[in-house]
Amino acid sequence: MATVTDFHQRPTKPNALTAARITPVGRGAVASVRVIGESNGLNVLVSRLFFPRNGRRIEHQEIGRIVFGTWGRVDGEHIVAVRLDKDRIEFHCHGGDAAVSRLLSDLDQSGIQIVDAFQQWSSTTSTIDMECLEATSRATTLRTADILLEQSSGILQSAFDELTTTAKSLVGNADKIESESPSLTALIQKIEALLQWAEFGIHLTEPWNVVLTGRPNVGKSSLLNRLLGYDRAIVFDKPGTTRDIVTGETAFDGWPVRLADTAGLRSASHSLEAAGIEKAVERIQSADLCLLLIDVSQPPTSEDRSLVQRWPESLVIAHKCDCDERWDDELPTGVIKVSSKTGEGIADLQKELVRRLVPNVPFPGTPIPISRRQVDFLRHARDAASMGNVGRLL
């Protein structure tokens, strides 16, 4: 098991000079290269390659100031540089491959080691902050990226530092560790406060899973396409058309969601359709939310009623509400009336999806575990602390 000390590791001061492209490979508006290393060697090498328009050497530029200049004296490339601190400088050039390739080539020929961005970050960033930066690179929405960036600013690292301090204090007074110990209670409460946001934190990089289910031909594929905004699933009026699970990813109110269209649930005589139904049931059981569709343009059937009873936690969708409703007073309470054809009720459905998937959003400044490694450690830590085995955490 990882120890709290593993999460307490702080970066060491960089010695070797390294350069890394920190923007994705490929064409873009701007490409960025970060150079890291001991300040004296860094300044000497950079001064041979970058010539600020204001005529001041790179080490004399203000930290955080955007400095315009040229890269190279011959056929100089116009770029800007920013000193992040005395050991780190970023260069921003044209987003085409040619410009950034020239920067990296010149740095390489000057004796600076070219590495990938994560390898470089790992030499100057704590384990926790590194995980946050890596997670940010996988964020699919601005909303989730903002939360992950906030965690990498030191908020989450500070929370783990606090656990370390409390655990070390308890071990230093090992003869006093009892279940009623205020310090032990405080440690457990701190762990629980982090675990409160465990599932939320994981979903910042792993979409919430929403499954569409119901009898065949209730319009699951049509609703999937409507929610995604494009035709992802085949729509056909023959029952049993969807036999495999069809998925598509989107975002509602900035929260990433993976939608899955499954085979219609019914008694199937064909082995292929039966296999699809079995997959559908497995997907429903593991989903964060199930959308159970009923076709209100047709009279209710025993299969409809059975499905509503079987999956009581589902969000029931009264689908095809643009047609004459034939369910009379049998509609379950809390249903949302939706028409994939006209778009009626889609906005209400999206709002309810968000309300159910993300019932609470942490306030700014709240530490949130963002990886399964962190969550697993915190759960082990809670169990160990609950038994008074605080020494296992260090």
What's the helix and strand layout?
Blueprint: E1 18-21, E2 30-36, H1 39-47, E3 50-52, E4 66-71, E5 77-85, E6 88-94, H2 97-109, E7 113-114, H3 117-122, H4 127-137, H5 142-171, H6 182-195, H7 198-202, E8 208-214, H8 220-228, E9 246-252, E10 255-261, H9 271-286, E11 289-295, H10 302-310, E12 315-319, E13 336-338, H11 346-357, H12 372-386
Parallel strand pairs: 1-7, 8-10, 8-11, 11-12, 12-13
Antiparallel strand pairs: 1-2, 2-6, 3-4, 4-5, 5-6, 9-10
Helix pairs in contact: 4-5, 5-6, 6-12
Would you mind describing this structure in some detail?
The structure is a single chain. This protein is 38% helix and 19% strand. It has a seven-stranded mixed β-sheet, with helices on one face. The chain has three domains: 18-111, Probable tRNA modification gtpase trme, domain 1 (Gyrase A, domain 2, 2-Layer Sandwich); 134-197 and 370-393, no CATH class; 208-357, P-loop containing nucleotide triphosphate hydrolases (Rossmann fold). It contains twelve helices and 13 strands. Helix 4 (127-137) packs antiparallel against helix 5 (142-171) and helix 6 packs antiparallel against helix 12 (372-386). It is α/β, with parallel strands linked by helices and 394 residues long. Mean pLDDT is 85; it is low at 233-243 and 266-274.
